[in-house]
């Protein structure tokens, strides 16, 4: 019996969640209702949470290396900021991208903490 840690279903679920979050950013973010949906400074917390979740799923669920999970998350964040620059009522900001980076780093860190504390030690 395969371990749940390496299950194909877990990988597929993580990939689905990453794609759903990315679609939510670009499709949901383009809707007029997205303008001013989360007021400052809470929007930075929302950025950190979303991109932390993306990095968490990339590293913990898809088993990508930590640096690659962070890189992909912040590239997605940069794409989101560029996308926002072309939407009426929306603004691109370096501060939002920095919140994305901070969240991605925290997401990868959380995977490491959970692995150390929740998974049984490997026997060599």
From TrEMBL:
It comes from Uliginosibacterium flavum. The chain crosses the membrane at residues 42-59, 66-85, 97-114. NCBIfam families: vanZ_1. Keywords: Membrane, Transmembrane, Transmembrane helix. This is VanZ family protein. Residues 42-114 form the VanZ-like domain. Pfam families: VanZ.
